[in-house]
Amino acid sequence: MTDFIPSFIREDLLKLSAYIPTPISDNQKQLTRLDANESPYNLPSELRIKLASFYEQEIETNRYPDGSHSVLKRLIVNYVNESINKEGLFNVNNISIGNGSDELIRSILMATCLNNQGSILVANPTFSMYKILAESLGINTISIERNEIDFSWDIDKANQAIRETNNPPIKVIFVVHPNSPTANCLNDSEIAWLKNLPSDILVVIDEAYYEFSKKTLAIELKNYPNWLVLRTFSKAFRLAAHRVGYAIASPAIINVLEKLRLPYNLPTFSQLAAQFAMENRQLILPAVEETIKEKERVFQELNKIKNLKIWRSDANFIYCRLKENGNYENHQNILNQLKEKNILIRHTGGGLRISIGTPEENDYLLSTIQSLFNQ
Ligand SMILES: *Cc1c(COP(=O)(O)O)cnc(C)c1O
């Protein structure tokens, strides 16, 4: 069986490698997992107990989920309007909910670029799923490099890519606010550039870390109908296990995303969990403030290490690089040495991305990393 490559498989898929998340092993509870930007905190136990009781009392496992997501959509609308202080600005026709934002990214790609209709533009280092999902659909990704100083977009290079990419033209630009892995929000000139882009290009603004940055461009969607904002329950809402993300955009775009998604893309229990998290966000989101405080502390401590260059972060993680000999092997070496001490971080985009954990986890990370550099 092993060598058989079926000829009915698309040839372009044979050379793709899958996104391989860190395997979750039996000893996961003993690991310090600072590699996926998750919240280090489970839902508060009173909420988990309540959720479990829903499962006992309300869920009909024999029935399909609510394919309209109507209850959850209404809750999200309230939250989004609250986040921009504009009651009633958005309604349920401005929201589409996906099985994680990943599903929405794929739907966006299908809606815009499939069948050789368009290419996408990204600026590296950035979230890898845009390119991975594009490749899986046979869609061309144009990648430019970010400015090395502050990881902003090189706008000249971006404009040049837009001008010169014709076959097929760039239809979607993915920006991240704040970016992963580099943790910077869009600056004023980047935002001005996005505002001036032609309206035949879709601008996707991924706000996965909005609750940490407290910055959002959602209010601009009313002025720029070619913009779309993505958010998720996987980070500040502590629901990565449930796979729920949402898009905010004009009804015309949302309509198409709703056509493309699978009819029952969100399991009943995930919808319930997301609804419940929204309704009880005053019990869940305060942990964001603790993470922000811890981030400042971790930043200050890492900053004392002479050979580390560290960037300011608007998210729940910190990006750093070796100042001297910052090649692939040396970064990988640090990752491996931390792994030996049961600490997981991520080596990506030519540097190291470290998620902020609990105070105890951060202490352990700091003492381990300090001893690596003091050897
Ligand atoms: C974590 C993250 C997401 C969330 O993806 P989900 O599929 O909703 O879990 C989206 N975008 C970026 C940039 C992220 O870092």
TrEMBL record:
<dbReference type="InterPro" id="IPR015421">
    <property type="entry name" value="PyrdxlP-dep_Trfase_major"/>
</dbReference>
<dbReference type="Pfam" id="PF00155">
    <property type="entry name" value="Aminotran_1_2"/>
</dbReference>
<keyword id="KW-0032">Aminotransferase</keyword>
<dbReference type="GO" id="GO:0000105">
    <property type="term" value="P:L-histidine biosynthetic process"/>
</dbReference>
<protein>
    <recommendedName>
        <fullName>Histidinol-phosphate aminotransferase</fullName>
        <ecNumber>2.6.1.9</ecNumber>
    </recommendedName>
</protein>
<dbReference type="InterPro" id="IPR015422">
    <property type="entry name" value="PyrdxlP-dep_Trfase_small"/>
</dbReference>
<dbReference type="InterPro" id="IPR050106">
    <property type="entry name" value="HistidinolP_aminotransfase"/>
</dbReference>
<dbReference type="InterPro" id="IPR015424">
    <property type="entry name" value="PyrdxlP-dep_Trfase"/>
</dbReference>
<comment type="subunit">
    <text>Homodimer.</text>
</comment>
<dbReference type="InterPro" id="IPR005861">
    <property type="entry name" value="HisP_aminotrans"/>
</dbReference>
<keyword id="KW-0175">Coiled coil</keyword>
<keyword id="KW-0663">Pyridoxal phosphate</keyword>
<feature type="coiled-coil region">
    <location>
        <begin position="288"/>
        <end position="341"/>
    </location>
</feature>
<keyword id="KW-0028">Amino-acid biosynthesis</keyword>
<dbReference type="GO" id="GO:0004400">
    <property type="term" value="F:histidinol-phosphate transaminase activity"/>
</dbReference>
<comment type="similarity">
    <text>Belongs to the class-II pyridoxal-phosphate-dependent aminotransferase family. Histidinol-phosphate aminotransferase subfamily.</text>
</comment>
<feature type="modified residue" description="N6-(pyridoxal phosphate)lysine">
    <location>
        <position position="235"/>
    </location>
</feature>
<feature type="domain" description="Aminotransferase class I/classII large">
    <location>
        <begin position="31"/>
        <end position="369"/>
    </location>
</feature>
<comment type="pathway">
    <text>Amino-acid biosynthesis; L-histidine biosynthesis; L-histidine from 5-phospho-alpha-D-ribose 1-diphosphate: step 7/9.</text>
</comment>
<dbReference type="GO" id="GO:0030170">
    <property type="term" value="F:pyridoxal phosphate binding"/>
</dbReference>
<dbReference type="InterPro" id="IPR004839">
    <property type="entry name" value="Aminotransferase_I/II_large"/>
</dbReference>
<keyword id="KW-0808">Transferase</keyword>
<keyword id="KW-0368">Histidine biosynthesis</keyword>
